Amino acid sequence: MGDNLIFRFLSYEDIDDILKLTGQINSKINSRTIFSEDTKEELKEVLDNGGHFVGVFDGDELIAYRSVKIPDEDSNVAKFIKTFEIPLDKVMINDTVVVREDYRGLNLQNRTRDEIQKKFEDSPYTHKIGTVSPTNPPSFKNTFKSGYNIIGLEKLYPDEHNPEGYYRFIVHKSNDVEYYFTGEEKLIHHEDIEKIKEAIDDFFYGVEINEEGFILFKKADVKVNNNSNSY
Predict the structure, then answer these.
(1) What are the boundaries of each domain within the chain?
(2) At how many degrees (to 10) do helices 137-145 and 108-117 cross?
(3) Which of 116, 129, 131, 150 lies 20 to 30 A from 81 at CA?
């Protein structure tokens, strides 16, 4: 399994297959605190607004996909970052990644990320941002390995079940940002929401997680080069 997988970019014609796959995954997770399922209209909006989907196929069957969207002002989570300013017009959102259970362990999260970034080479979107549930350590462990840092923690994605939304780490990666670490560090368990919020407000940024579920936060001064066009 995994040797003959096909990666290709998806279009409007593939949206029903995306919905089918996400429905299968969501029925097994059965927890909105981890995964928020997109509607057909929301998936269309990703393409309408300049975003992309990359899908992974085994034969004719979609078994994984990743989406990147270009956010409007309302959906741009960079506006919640309090410790340094990210230019909102340079943000792309690593929005959703879904891998069918029997295809996990094939590094498809990273492989789809690498593939979809090809669509944004030499683009003005130099700040890559994603959101990850604090209750899903394997997912944000993977983002650390890909060079992302935790820079925020907010309640996002409100729905009829939870009008206040669900806690999500905001993770970020950009060549336009330099971290000047001071040497101060804190180890905080990923479930300790209040301590994590306090640390981030005090300019600590999450950089890795250990096997016991403790995130290493390092204090840093941050410089943002807002004039850069580098990818």
Answers:
(1) 6-224
(2) 50
(3) 116
Helices (H), 154-208: 193-201
pTM, two decimals, is 0.86
Q: Are 167 and 193 in contact (CB under 8 A)?
A: yes
From CA 128, how far away is CA 121, in angstroms rounded? 12
User: What counts of helices (H) and strands (E) characterise the chain?
Assistant: 5, 10
pLDDT digits (tens, 9 = 90+) for 159-198: 888 899 999 999 999 999 999 999 999 999 999 999 999 9
Which amino acid makes up residue 63?
A: I
Strand partners, 56: 7, 64
Burial string for 75-111 (b: 16+ CB within 10 Å, else e) reads bbbbeebeebebeeebbbbbbbbbbbeeeeebebbeb
Which residues are bridge partners to 178 per DSSP?
223
Which positions ≥6 away from 147 have C-beta within 8 Å?
A: 173
Cα–Cα distance measured from residue 7 to residue 57, given in angstroms and rounded to the nearest whole number: 6
Q: What class does CATH assign to 6-224?
A: alpha beta
Give the burial string for 27-43 (b: 16+ CB within 10 Å, else e). eeeeebeebbbbeeeeb
* End-to-end Cα spacing for the chain: 33
What is the greatest pairwise CA distance in the chain?
51
Q: Is the pLDDT of residue 25 over 90?
A: no
Identity of residue 16:
D
